[in-house]
Specification:
Oligomer: single chain
Number of helices: 10
Structural class: mainly alpha
Order of helices and strands: HHHHEEHHHHHH
Radius of gyration: 21 Å
Helix content: over 70%
Number of strands: 2
Distance between the termini: 27 Å
Shape: elongated
Strand order of the largest sheet: 1-2
Amino acid sequence: MSALIRLFPGAWRERYEEEFLVLLETRPPTVGDRFDIVRGALDARLHPQVRRGAEDPITDERAADLRAGRKLGVAAVAGAIVWVAAFGVVLMGPVRQDAEGAYRDGSAALPLFLVAMVAIVFGLVGHVIVFPRGARVARASAYAAMPLLLLFGIGPWMWPFGFAAMIFIAIVALGGLRAGTWPLWATTAVALGLLGVVGIAVVGLSLTGLDRMTGGVLFLLAGLCLVPVWLGVGGSLIAGPAPIRLPPA
């Protein structure tokens, strides 16, 4: 990596090289990252006013925060697997009948729903840790989403809590993208997942005479649409913040 860092002008290296090396040790660069580094070095020579995207210096404490964030990101990604498994348990549940009609009993999946929600809360905690000081709205949105997610995990039928939590997560994703701690793909994954849920909700509301079994199928589809949310929250922590960001032209 020293050869790539030498592509930057001397003034840039004097100011940022040590911090940059610490960040690279925390998050080994991919092939795409190496391309971005070369592009950033070229821009740094053409536009000497280059600055880092994050406001906080990459100190030893900051590097420790990034490592903690990556571990919490792994937990969030694992939560996506638990979330899918919960719906698998629901599908295998017995069909029961009451005064309102037939339905599939998914009570056995409730512990898995709660574990999946705890996992994504871990991911939000990781983002609270790694967000730069200026990302106040994104950090506040992460805090707001946490209790809503836990309530939704305790009772998945309380979907308004889950819907509100996902709105806050969308704000977290947008704030992270702006702060440079979320890659574009992760923000896009969250957005697409939420759009899928909204689309299924619109379809459900448009159907007349919807029985409970059909409603359960729609709930299953909406739940699967949320898988990219877990992957975005966790994957953005595992990928880590962008090493550099150039100022707007």
